[in-house]
Amino acid sequence: MFNPAHLLNLGGTICFLVAILHVAIIIAGPAAYRYFGAGEDLSSMAERNSSIPALVTAFIATVIATFGLYAFSGAGEIHRLPFLGPVLLLIGTIFGLRGLALPLQLYFVMTGSRRVQPREIAFSLVSLLTGFCFLYGTKLNWDFIFN
Questions:
Q1: 76 backbone φψ class: left, alpha, beta (φ>0; ψ -120 to 50)
Q2: What is the mean pLDDT of the chain?
Q3: Cα separation of 3 and 35, whole Å?
């Protein structure tokens, strides 16, 4: 039988995997920053052993891990976090909006008007899936989350 909390658990798991990926990027260094699209400025700073790229990336990893904690809280796996319902809706909206780059990316691929890396499409798909897990999981667990 389907448990509606599974969607929030999946969303939380994805968030933790993405947070771990960000930590791995810090460890791997400048080439990883470039590959994952951090931009030339951050990649160059990482090459010069600046602490800024690691701090920025660690901050992002922390925020995304916190998103995962909210998903697990909404699924009832951990204690109730503050402002649970509105925060879950906000997180789902953030991921959903990021995932909405997918149709434009697919348009670019089909028309050949701009080169799109397969990883860009994968990032958009993961974002869209995560946003769906948060938003629909929140809807399915509405009574638990908002009581």
A1: left
A2: 95
A3: 37
18 closest CA partner among 91, 100, 82 = 91
The CA distances from residue 31 to 27, 124, 144, in Å, are: 10, 21, 44
| Distance (Å, whole) CA 17 – CA 19 | 5
Residues 71/8, Cβ–Cβ less than 8 Å: yes
What is the token pair recorded at 126?
């993961």
Percent of the chain with pLDDT over 70: 99
Binning pLDDT at 50, 70 and 90, where does residue 30 land?
Answer: very high
- How many helices (H) does the chain have, and how many strands (E)? 8, 0
Query: 79-113 pLDDT, tens per residue?
Result: 999 999 999 999 999 999 999 999 999 999 999 98
Give every CB contact of residue 10 below 8 A, 6+ residues apart in sequence. 133, 137
Question: What is the C-alpha separation between 120 and 124, in angstroms, rounded?
Answer: 6
